[in-house]
Design a protein that fits this description.
Length: 291
Amino acid sequence: MLTREQLKAVRKIQIRTSHLVSDLFAGQYQSAFKGRGMEFAEVRPYLPGDDVRAIDWNVTARTGEPHIKRFVEERELTVMLVVDASGSTMFGSRGQFKRELAAEIGALFAFSAIQNNDKVGLIIFTDRVELAIPPRKGNRHVLRVIREIMNHEAVGRGTDIAGALDYLDRVTHRRCVTFLMSDFLCDGIERSLAAASGRHDLVGVIFDDARDVELPDVGLVAMEDPESGEVAIVDTGDRGFREEHHRKQTEARRQRDRGLRAAGMDFIRLNTGEPYSSALMSFFRSRGRRR
């Protein structure tokens, strides 16, 4: 059972993201993501200017008057939130953990989806798949998804994105819009990302924090790797150490971004404790124009 503080946090996210969906993202989500194709709507009499390729010859022969088939886009989608709950997501230097930002962004995508009558499912992973919720519709279901992202107590500490994507492929039987939410600080995932991008409409949501790259000058500190648990004593007062840390972390993120582009997937880069509305609007509009 959730504590009063946890329920309050979930309610706060619901209010904030519902407002954003209603006021900012109305229509943007629908234009950014395609339905599965075209579905039959009706047969109606032919009108001058109609495409003759749409003529229904069976009905035309039966009635003696030309009729055409009308199709509409099959709008309903399945949206999967695939969320990294590894040790590195429980970090944030600006009043917000990466996991908390994931819950807020996941809520925004989920509320946008159900407003368009789409289904939403959830996979939470670390170095293993820890939780899977099948896609469903409705506000009550979305609130459960948000609660699980925020309050899931992870068993593993590492990150296995390839394993999570393999699991997604086993439990889904058709193409999904998949938001893969992680800091993506792991190696050797390009092939898995490319394969998943070919099967699904895969969008990476990258969570960064300023302290991932920039270390403050606070003297000797014990730094723990959140995924391996290894602890090292470092001297942040050493300017050379801080500059080398910045260089390595910046290069790691460049390689990460290159790998995501090479996989043929879209991605959004967000930072903890910073406004995200502009970045998301830019992403939605870019997708809508390409469509």
